[in-house]
Design a protein that fits this description.
alpha+beta, two-stranded antiparallel ribbon
């Protein structure tokens, strides 16, 4: 019987020989600021198709990154994200 994992904290890393899923904890960030910065960077990568967002984990109390309802990132959306990131960097002195 497969153990229940909260998908907001765990992600599937692969499968065992018997076909059961192998889980590992998602990457965590100590602060919301660090998680937000990583989201901006990931969302602006050309290979990123679905929007990523940061959220506070109810299990570990740290911040994780996950998909935002599978929202597709087109060029127009990536342009908006780039503008927001530029503003965010000025506000938080992150260059």
């Amino acid at each position: 019987m497969e153990m229940e994992y909260n998908k907001r904290h765990w992600k599937v890393e692969g499968f065992n020989e018997d076909g059961s899923k192998i889980y590992k904890p998602k990457k965590s960030f100590d602060t919301e600021l660090k998680a937000q910065q990583e989201c901006f960077k990931l969302n602006l990568k050309p290979e990123t198709i679905h929007k990523l967002v940061s959220y506070k984990c109810q299990i570990c109390g740290k911040w994780h990154i996950g998909h935002h309802n599978d929202k597709v990132l087109d060029d127009k959306e990536k342009s908006k994200i780039q503008k927001k990131y530029n503003e965010w960097k000025i506000i938080h002195n992150k260059y």
